Amino acid sequence: MMRPEVGVNLRRVSAITKKEFIQIVRDYRSLGLAIVIPIILLILFGFALSLDVDNIPLVIWNQDKSQVSRDFILNFGNSRYFKIAGYFDSYDKLQEYIDTRRAMMALVIPKDFSKYIQSNQAAPVQLLVDGSDSNTATIAMGYADSVVAGYNARFINNSIARSGLGKFSLLDLRPRVWFNEDLKSKNYIIPGLIAVIMMIIAAQLSSITVAREWERGTMEQLISTPVRRGELILGKVIPYFLIGFLDLLIAVAMGQFVFLVPLRGSLALLLILSSIFLVGALGQGLYFSITAKNQRLATQLAILTTFMPTFLLSGFVYPIYNMPKIIQAITYLVPARYFINILKGIYLKGEGLNILWQPALLLLLFSIFIIHSGYRRFQKKVA
Fold it and tell me: Rounded to two decimals, what is the model's pTM?
């Protein structure tokens, strides 16, 4: 039965930390990647990953060619959601543009359109939609419905006004968007990216630290020293915590000054809760490093258990409430789920600890659990 370790010798922890820093500096390529990769990921995902559906290419066949039909088309042309890609006079040309993805939608206005409108009858208008991307197609059709509804409302009110009855509206809906007024997807993608980057980078960095000692044969030398398990783990984690914290500062600065994402909450609270999450991510990589004793295997395990769960099951891109019940239950085991809630709460809503204490507590429990698991798993003896 092993004797429990009592206390921490800061000199021994400092020695292990200094040794780890020397190894990191010598492996300057890995250190460079640890700094450069988060920047690259932020730039790629921040600019390329957008869920906004704007400038939908639209082609039009206006068979009516009247001022009434041109006024109707102006409603699409003046909308920020549509970009008119061309006017044609046959279905073949419309199909060609949709088939070659030069257009996503086609609008066909019949030749009697103005007669229907002027006689106060419902005018049939055909809308052809490329449904190969079902989500985007659904959003685009919603935008088209909105444009048509706006045109109908203005036409009805103008007709009533001309008849001398004044403006009339059955329902006056006045929506107001909170927290993300412009509905820009980058405002919630960038905070989510911070969680993804921190989880992946931190777990990968720490996943090689103990395994490297076993592969190089230096673990036997460490075992023969008076350094205790807790001191060794602490000394190994500190350098990578500082690197991860630097990555966090870079990500926050880029979100603020490059992507102009509003930070409405406390920066201090953001850094404190991010540090708790960072410790948990480092502990997860360290656990795999202790268990696998092989750098390649530990790195693969770290990637497998961080990238896909964080990207798919945390609510970063796909809403959790849309997932099957069994998958929703699994998401409770993904720590990034709670961290993304914290990031979005601080960034977009300006929430404080009085609201975020539950996810913060769960992150703290996860960090303590994973670090303790690594501590229990590591044994100062040669197998």
Answer: 0.78
